[in-house]
Structure prediction request, 282 residues.
Amino acid sequence: MEQLEGKVAVVTGGASGIGRALAERFAAEGMKLVLADVEEGALAATAKELADGGADTRGVVTDVADRGSVDALATRTLEEFGAVHVVCNNAGVGGLGHPTWDGPLSAWEWVLGVNLWGVIHGIRAFVPALVEQDEGHVVNTASMAGLAAMPFMGPYTTTKHAVVGLSEVLFHELGVRGSAVGVSVLCPNFLRTNIFDSDRNWPSRLGESPGRPDEPGAQFIFDAGQALLESSPNPSMLAEATVDAIRGRRFVVLSDSDAAAQAMATRRDVVVDGVAPTLGFG
Prediction:
C-alpha cells in the first residue's frame, strides 16, 4: 500500500513505546489515527499531543486481552471513519522472571492474554474489513524473542514465537485467497521503551501482582536487559522501517539485522546439526 495520506491506522498499545512511535510516524504521513491502550492517562496525553500537532486522532481505552473490548474498538473505528487500512496489533507486556515450572499461573494468563490473545483478537476484529475492501496492512509486534529464547522469560518468549508463526499463517492465508492485504511482523531487538515496567498495568482481575521472584538468574537477566534498554535506539527507527515495510510489502521488520542473523544461524545449527542451544542473540 503506497499511499498512506488520509488512510486510517489503528495502533494498540499506542500510548507509549513502539506504539507511540508508530502513531507519530503515521501522523507524519498524514494518516488518521485510532490509538488504543489500557493505560488511560498516558493514552489521553498521547492522543492530545498528536491531535495538537494536527493529526485526526481518537484515543480509545482498550484491553486487548478482552475480545469484547477489541470488537468495540473495531466498531468505533469503522463507525467514525468508515474504513480501516493499517492495523497494528502492538500492545505487549514483559514477563516477571519466574522459571517455567514455578511461579503463579496468573503471570502466564496475563502475558498470553495481552501478547498473544491481543493479536488474535485484533486479527479477528479487523481483518474481515480489510479483506472486504481488499486493501490494507496488518502489523503484528513480536520481538527478537520470537526468533530466539532466553531463560526466565517463558511467557514472553512463548507469545513472541507464537506471534511470528501466527503472522506467517495469516500471510499465507491472505495469499491463498488472492487478497491485496499485506502482513508484517516486527521483531525488534532492545529498544528504549518501558517494557520492563509492564506490571504497572497488572490487571486487578488476576489478584495481586506477584512481582519479580527472588531468583538470581532472573535478576541478572533483568539487570542486563535494563542496561541494554537504556543504551538502545529510540523506537522511532523501527516505526520508520515499518512504514517502509507497509509500502514495500516486507514481511519481517527488524531493528538489528546482525542480531537476527546470529539468531537464525544459531537456530540452523540447533535444528540441522543437532548442537545444543546457546544463550543470546546479540
In short: The first helix runs from residue 17 to 28. Residues 94 and 197 are 8 Å apart (CA to CA). The first strand starts at residue 8 and ends at 12. The chain has a mean pLDDT of 95.
